[in-house]
Amino acid sequence: MKPSIPPSSSRDPRPGVRSGERSRLRLIVVRVLVFSLFATLFARLYYLQVVSGDSYRQAAASQSLREVVVQPQRGLIVDDQGRPLVANRTAWVVSVDRTLLDRLSGHDRSVVLSRLADAVHTPRKRIEQALVTCGDPGSKRGLCWNGSPYQPVPVATEVRQAVALRILEQPEDYPAVVAQQQSVRAYPRPYGVNLADIVGYLSPITAGELQHAKQDHDTSVNGASTVGRAGIEEEYDRYLRGRPGYQKVAVDSMGRVLGDEGRVDGNPGDTLVTSIDARVQAATEHALHDAITTARATYDPVTHRNYRADSGAAIVLQARTGRVVAMASQPTYNPGAWVGGITKKQLARLYSPRAGDPLLARAYQGQFAPGSTWKPIMTVGAFNHGFGPGSRLDCSSGFQVGNRLFHNYESESYGMIDFARALQVSCDTFFYRVGYHFWHEFGQDPTNVNARDPLVDEAKAFGFGRPTGIDVPGEASGRIADRRWKLAYWKSMKGYYCGIDQHPPAGTSPYLKLFAHEFCLEGSYYRAGDAVNFAIGQGDTLVTPLQLARAYAALSNGGTLYEPRIAKAIVSPSGKVVRRIRPKVQGHVSDPAHAISYVTDALLGTARTGTLAWKMLGFPLDRIHIRSKTGSAEVYGKQSTSWVASYDDNYVVLMMVTQGGTGSGTSGPFVRKIWESLYGVHGSTVDTKDALIPGIIAPDTLPSFQPDGSILPPRPRKPGRGRP
Amino acid sequence: MNGRLRNPGVDRVLMLAVLCLLVLGTLLVWSATSHRDDLTAGDPTAYLRKQLVNVCIGLVLMVVVMATDHRWVRIVAPVVYLASVGGLVLVLTMGTTVNGSRSWIDVAGMSIQPSEFAKLAVVIGMALLVAERKEGRRTGVGSAEVVGMLVIAGVPAALIMLQPDLGTLLVLSATVFGVLAVAGAPRRWLAFLLAGGLVGGVAVFAGHLLKPYQIDRFLAFTNPDLDPRGAGYNTEQARIAVGNGGLFGQGLFHGSQTRAGFVPEQHTDFIFTVAGEELGLVGAAVLIALLGIVIWRALAISALSTDLFGRVAAAGIACWFGFQAFQNIGMCLGIMPVTGVPLPFVSYGGSSMFAGMLAIGLLQNIHLRATASLPTRYARPISQVTRGYHRTRAGLTPQR
User: Fold this and answer.
1) CA A422 to chain centre
2) What ipTM, to 2 d.p.?
3) In this predicted structure, what is the pLDDT of residue B202?
């Protein structure tokens, strides 16, 4: 069926017969060449696959992949002058390559694991548990491995260099064991700062978090990652953590690296610049520590024993921005305890109430009755609802509400005084009368939860009862004990107390019986007693020290309520500013009666002639205009809480010591010390050159990050601008 | 042997072989990449889909060239040549560095490798020169033509040498030599070039023109220890993967070495190792045979061609494919140095696919013209074709 073809020569429009013949011949040569090349390929293929196939199959079976994760260096955390608060150092980590381990015989495996356990001083059982993939039979939560199957499993961190080098130098004794250097957190502690509550700590990623990251295609974490758990380490984790590098290597049956299988380079994390100043922080931590030790050595005439002073907090805020300059809590812990894994014993101590719950950052997680430091807020509320500078009320030694007599502190009496004097001498009966006035005017029906309460409204306007929005997680919101709260509390507790009331268990005290009976019947009633207690910051109202400091900052700056910020900026490893974190305004206190400026003037007197005066003798108050309020909050069954809240145009300084006695007595001298260090006060002279922060208040500009890794402080504010 | 033309029109055997290669190649690319999360970002079919797009574009290009009038092909040829020389210059000035040599330019989101097109351009350019000067004359190819052809090949070759891309340079040299031979260059010129190449090679090695590590890299296929972490490692892993395949292979998508990703660049330069491991001796031999068929048909079309352009171009394409396939497969089998040349129609990649399919289009174009110029049924009115067909069925030879 094919058409027959004429001989090719006849249909060639020839370009020269000789060259055509030559060309044809050469085409044949080319064919032969190509054929022989392809025959060579086939022969070689046959040789590889059939003749020596067995040896290659063996080679294939003996090699395996190992994924080496190069953990990124976590970003630095520096203070406002660029001093590193949290940095990194290298530590040796010993890991086990499970693929290689599985290829060892049962006996060899057991020998290797025992040898390894001895070398790194870790129980063998623990190592074996660490090698089980989470979810596999026998896996133990918290110990099992939740990383990639190709990745060597870290079994010991913080290994001594001598041990690591022995493992590296004697691979024949430690087949399947890998020793690597890894970057871990270091705490340089400039000026001795601790900062644990602010910084937080790191701990290994959980299976759930890893799963989450995988779903989000987040490659910044892997099974061996550690992530921020509290404080700014948690809040800014995604900036700080960087991106790990991955390197795949093929290894032979002995674990020797054969070659690269590709790598993905990592990035170090970004640097976090904070508004914390290490020198002020150190001064604040020392002041708090000294306040507590001094209180513990002081006799309490009320309870007839020394003050327990079991916890405390001290805060320094920039009044005009809400930035946190220093924040200290007691008791605290060493953030370095987490590096390389925390022991069970250490962890139990950190969570134990007997050790004072050191993990609870009192400054923003502790909730306390504000006591008399509450009164300036009440004054603003009163002025905006009818009272004024001319209002005078009786500061009697006692005040009768219903069948109960409320006393002044030490039953003092000052007669008819105005608000300014009432604040300076912290007269309780004066403010009882204010509270009673509003309760009498708007809320005589104790069951009406919707009754107006200007004082409660003012407290809310100053940001109490809700989180301040500081950039650390886990903040407490405090509590305003208003009518709604009381009803809700009664609802949640009435079952318990009504049960006691109806069927009192054997041995119930008469007091509890009576209380249960009253609570069951009328526990939700908001009575005049509740209202007057609220007016002096007692009763069930609770604040965090940070909330109070923030409210005082609003007094200082004329009513702007900031979300406190610790972070100032995120800076890339190359020194470029990735993101500036600006102060955020949460709200403004409405103040048509100009009560804030009244209060600010009035609080000047506290340190001159008021409750704090005995602790401020000789202080240059004419140059540094400190407004202050002391407080001694009573806590049922405990010694009173000592408070001092103070501010000027630049700063808010606040200190609180629980079971610490009076405000001025315990906290006063140490608040003074903080003020002295902020402004460079020696005795009664001020030398601003000695101020802890050059220029008194830190500039808005950031430290500059040099290409060689050094960090230069920002140029200080012009002298005079930051002056009081 | 070129005297028996069986099917006028499109060369169906060539077409079938190319289609089989495309299907097989796409499967192998898929198998080599489906588990490589580092390449695919978790989508096992990412490379399959991209390669299917490449294949489709390639097929379109082939059809376009096939359907173009042969006179147009010769008019466009210089443009193609100049464009690829321009591309090579661009690569050197603004190219992306991949694996140590600059050979890519980014055009509209696609990575283009001009050196792949340069091979086709050189073949067409040389064929055009010899055809323009010698077609219809009775004199053979002389020194003037040889020098002209060498200049045409030399410009892109020099640019490729600067990248540097040794593999492409080797393929190009072999192709140029084949084109010169088939074009009918005088024997003394061929001998001279062969000697020149040998002397040049020795000079490069002996005269320290290459750095020692480059020589070690080049020779690592003979002894992997010369470059244990680089080329030596690649060639060793390739051999292990192929050797692991045995007679029938481990099955498509089931090669243990391929799964684990031991062979670097497995979806591009080392794609043959996937065939070796997963399809075994049988499958790999079929792959080699398919490439052999393509080259056999290219040489047959060369012999069949009625004009000098077609003959030289087809032979050049055959040399190009033949040597490149040998170089690539030889590298996977450890008998050729490790250089980055793709396996035509099989390796993943757009540029090599497009250049290869353009060449196939050109082969078909030449075939169409060669067969159309014959007095066959295609040359006659349709009614006669029908009649001729019936007679053929009856066992008679068709009418002239």
Assistant:
1) 38
2) 0.88
3) 84
Report yes or no: A683 and A618 within 8 Å, Cβ to Cβ: yes
Residue B385 lies in a domain: no
**Upstream peptide bond of A358 is cis (omega within 30 degrees of 0):** no
Mean pLDDT of chain B: 84
Nearest alpha-carbon partner for A453 in A519, A528, A392: A528
Mean pLDDT of chain A: 84
Nearest to A88 by CA among A221, A214, A233, A246: A233
Sheet holding B101-107, edge to edge: B96-98, B101-107, B110-112
Closest CA to B309 of B139, B75, B119, B85: B75
Alpha-carbon torsion (B172, B173, B176, B182), positive or negative: negative
Three-state SS string over A279-313 comes to HHHHHHHHHHHHHHHHHHCCEECCCCEECCCCEEE
**Residue B304's domain spans which residues?**
12-374
CA gap B325, B295 in Å, rounded: 10
Give the pLDDT score at A19.
60
Helix/strand/coil (H, E, C) string of A637-692? CCCCEEEEEEECCCEEEEEEEECCCCHHHHHHHHHHHHHHHHHCEECCEECHHHCC
* A6: preceding bond cis by omega (within 30 degrees): no
User: What was the pLDDT predicted at B20?
Assistant: 97
Q: In chain B, how many domains are there?
A: 1
Residues constituting chain B: 400
Residue ranges in A14-72 assigned as alpha helix (H): 17-46, 53-62
Per-residue model confidence (pLDDT) at position A11: 39
Asked if the Cβ–Cβ distance from A30 to B315 is below 8 Å, we say yes
Assess B141–A contact: CB distance below 8 Å, yes or no: yes
Question: Which of A13, A16, A261 comes nearest B261 by C-beta?
Answer: A261
CB contacts of B239 in chain A (<8 Å) are 48, 56
Q: How far apart are CA A436 and CA A526, in angstroms?
A: 12
- Work out the pLDDT band at A68, boundaries 50, 70, 90: confident
Residue B365 pLDDT: 92
Pure H helices in A152-191: 161-169
Give domain status of residue B398, yes or no. Answer: no
- In percent, the amount of chain A with pLDDT more than 70 equals 93
Beta strands in B110-207 (DSSP E): 110-112
User: Which 3 state secondary structure label does DSSP give A79?
Assistant: coil
H-run or E-run covering A247: strand A245-251
User: Chain B contacts of A40, Cβ < 8 Å?
Assistant: 326, 330, 335
Global pTM value: 0.67
d(CA B290, CA B67): 24
How sure is the predictor about B395, in pLDDT bands with cuts at 50, 70 and 90? Answer: very low
Please check whether residue B1 lies inside any domain of the structure. Answer: no
> Pairing state of beta strands A77-78 and A271-274?
parallel
Q: Is A515 exposed, middle or buried (0-12, 13-18, 19+ CB in 10 A)?
A: middle
Contact B319 A258 (CB under 8 A): no
Structural domains in chain A, CATH included, are: 66-274 (3.90.1310.10), 278-482+526-690 (3.40.710.10)
| Rama region for A441: left / alpha / beta (φ>0; ψ in -120 to 50; rest) | alpha
Which of the residue ranges A144-148, B150-154, B332-336 would you say has the lowest mean pLDDT?
A: A144-148
> Do the domain assignments include residue B275?
yes
For residues A513 and A490, give the distance between their C-alpha atoms in angstroms, rounded to a whole number: 16
Distance CA A210, CA A223 (A): 7
Classified as helix, coil or strand, A529 is helix
* Cα A21 off chain centre by: 89
Q: How many CB atoms lie within 10 A of CB A355?
A: 13
Mean pLDDT of B371-396: 47
360-399 in B: which are within 8 Å (CB) of A? 373-374, 376-377, 392-393, 397-398
